[in-house]
Design goal:
Elements lengths: L5 H7 L4 E7 L16 H13 L2 E7 L2 H6 L8 E5 L8 E3 L4 E9 L17 E5 L3 H9 L4 E5 L2 H10 L4 E5 H10 L4 E2 L5 E10 L3 H16 L2 H8 L6 E2 L2
């Protein structure tokens, strides 16, 4: 694909600036923070800006929920966040371009072996508030209860300090946490896979159409695979 058509450019990069919302809690897509962040998502934003003949301004958020909320305040033009039904009222999402498995981390004494065993009465699952996998659990859990912390690090602190039996999270992040807490282990299986997409405010139809084609192109052309390899990211599965 070449330069953006004028209607799409006007919606994606008004005034020659493309404002890209980043979810800083997703360390698989954001490798380093700062005014000039690195990672798969920042590089995709730079590619979009280049095609628009525009500069890119990164708009960071502590979690995906805050980024999604900001669409009604017109704080960004595109967002790289998980595509969840709760966020689709105000945002048009592309098809997912990558997904990340979500599973559970348990204490050494836990009898659980598989994710399907966890949804039981009396079980408390520590999780990060407003994460896409937390929204999924809110919709699907029938018996277990969620204990929500402000962030993934805060959830891990609760899991360790209060000795909750189960913690939910993205598999790569939980694997890293398990290294900090000897004896803890990941359960077999996954309870969902968080699908990462590119979002744009509703009613920006020309921009949404271009983003839909862009999401397909980055997968088919090999650009996405190149970025994942360049940033040495493990745990991202390309959605085809």
């Amino acid at each position: 694909m070449s330069q953006l058509p004028d209607p799409a450019r006007a919606e994606l990069a008004p005034n020659g600036r493309l404002r890209a919302a980043l979810n800083l809690s997703n360390t698989l897509l954001i490798s380093t923070r700062g005014p000039d962040p690195t990672g798969v998502a920042p590089d995709l934003a730079r590619e979009l800006a280049k095609r628009a003949g525009a500069s890119v301004d990164f708009v960071p958020y502590a979690n995906a929920g805050l980024a999604a909320d900001a669409v009604v305040r017109n704080e960004w033009d595109v967002a790289f966040i998980g595509a969840e039904p709760q966020r689709a009222g105000d945002i048009t999402f592309t098809a997912a371009y990558v997904e990340i498995e979500a599973t559970y981390l348990v204490q050494p004494a836990s009898a659980f072996r598989h994710v399907d065993e966890v949804d039981r009465d009396g079980v408390h699952i520590v999780t990060a508030a407003r994460a896409a996998y937390t929204l999924f659990l809110q919709r699907t859990l029938r018996r277990a209860a969620l204990v929500e912390a402000d962030s993934l690090p805060a959830a891990f602190d609760l899991f360790i300090e209060k000795k909750f039996e189960v913690m939910a999270g993205l598999k790569p992040n939980l694997a890293a946490n398990a290294q900090k807490a000897p004896g803890t282990r990941l359960l077999e299986g996954r309870f969902t896979a968080v699908q990462q997409a590119i979002g744009i405010a509703k009613k920006r139809e020309a921009g949404a159409a271009y983003l839909a084609a862009f999401a397909k192109e980055i997968v088919g052309s090999g650009l996405l695979r190149d970025l994942i390899d360049r940033h040495r990211v493990e745990g991202l599965s390309i959605v085809r």
